[in-house]
Design a protein that fits this description.
This is Flagella basal body P-ring formation protein FlgA SAF domain-containing protein. InterPro entries: SAF_FlgA (IPR017585). It comes from Silvanigrella paludirubra. The chain starts with 6 loop residues before the first strand and ends with a strand. The protein is mainly beta. It folds into 3 domains: 103 residues, no CATH class; 75 residues, Antifreeze-like/N-acetylneuraminic acid synthase C-terminal domain (Type Iii Antifreeze Protein Isoform Hplc 12, Alpha-Beta Complex); 62 residues, SH3 type barrels (Roll).
């Protein structure tokens, strides 16, 4: 089976209005793309209104060409600064007399990406649920399209909502603002006012348990206060009533925190 060379499509921006110079600018950009990809990559001019998957936007930021004698990139001068979908190249070109000019171009891989944002204003200490989270999208060619955490498909973003639900926000988040996972607590396993199982093991062979009402929200390993009425086992030496403290060990369950 013969594999065809990879193809990329390029949409050129900020080229010279002079057609001859513009063609030379395109040629240098193509050389940079081939260095970035593979030398056998086929570079095709983007057709207007076409929808190509492997598409680059090429910006000529600094592409001065005083005359047509400049015809060679100096490979050793190429410097690349890369972010998620954008690469900026700075390099020198020369002519037959070894005169040099520095160029700067930007290549942006055009993609539609997705991220999770607040569907409504979220206050500090709010516990997120599905109605708080929205999937938004943007195109990587847009200057404001720079989410910290992005997904390459709408389905992938929707599936990730499960990792954001039932977590407490440490920040106030405005509607439309990206929800950063670092602002969220671990998953809340016990909610304030819920029926909560309390266990106590004074020794390895004895487990005492009862139920009470949790007085706050908490995640695994956190200490929580629980309002209880009595222990099931009346024969236990220790069966406190009222408000006790317990360590969350599972959804809806705490272990009595002995002093």
């Amino acid at each position: 089976m013969i594999l065809s060379p990879p193809q990329v499509y390029v949409e050129y921006k900020d080229l010279s209005k002079d057609e001859g110079i513009a063609e030379i600018q395109k040629d240098f950009i193509v050389q940079i793309i081939k260095l970035n990809k593979q030398n056998d990559t086929i570079v095709i001019d983007k057709i207007i209104d076409s929808n190509n998957d492997n598409l680059f936007i090429a910006h000529c930021i600094q592409c001065n060409l005083p005359n047509l004698s400049f015809n060679e990139i100096i490979p050793s001068t190429i410097k690349r600064n890369k972010s998620n979908f954008s690469s900026e190249y700075i390099f020198d070109i020369k002519n037959d007399s070894n005169s040099k000019i520095t160029w700067k171009i930007q290549l942006i891989e055009k993609k539609k990406i997705y991220y999770l944002a607040a569907k409504q204003n979220i206050s500090i200490n709010s516990i997120l649920n599905e109605k708080d989270i929205d999937v938004l999208s943007c195109s990587t060619e847009e200057s404001k399209c720079n989410p910290n955490h992005f997904y390459l498909s709408n389905k992938e973003a929707e599936n990730s909502i499960l990792n954001f639900k039932n977590k407490k926000s440490s920040n106030q988040i405005r509607v439309g603002q990206e929800i950063d996972p670092k602002w969220l607590s671990q998953e809340i396993l016990i909610h304030a006012g819920e029926k909560t199982k309390v266990t106590y093991s004074p020794n390895r062979s004895l487990i005492i348990q009862t139920f009470g009402k949790s007085l706050s929200n908490a995640g695994r390993g956190e200490t929580i206060r629980v309002q209880i009425s009595d222990w099931f086992d009346k024969s236990s030496v220790l069966h406190p009533t009222g408000i006790i403290e317990g360590i969350v060990i599972a959804p809806g369950e705490v272990e009595y925190a002995t002093k």
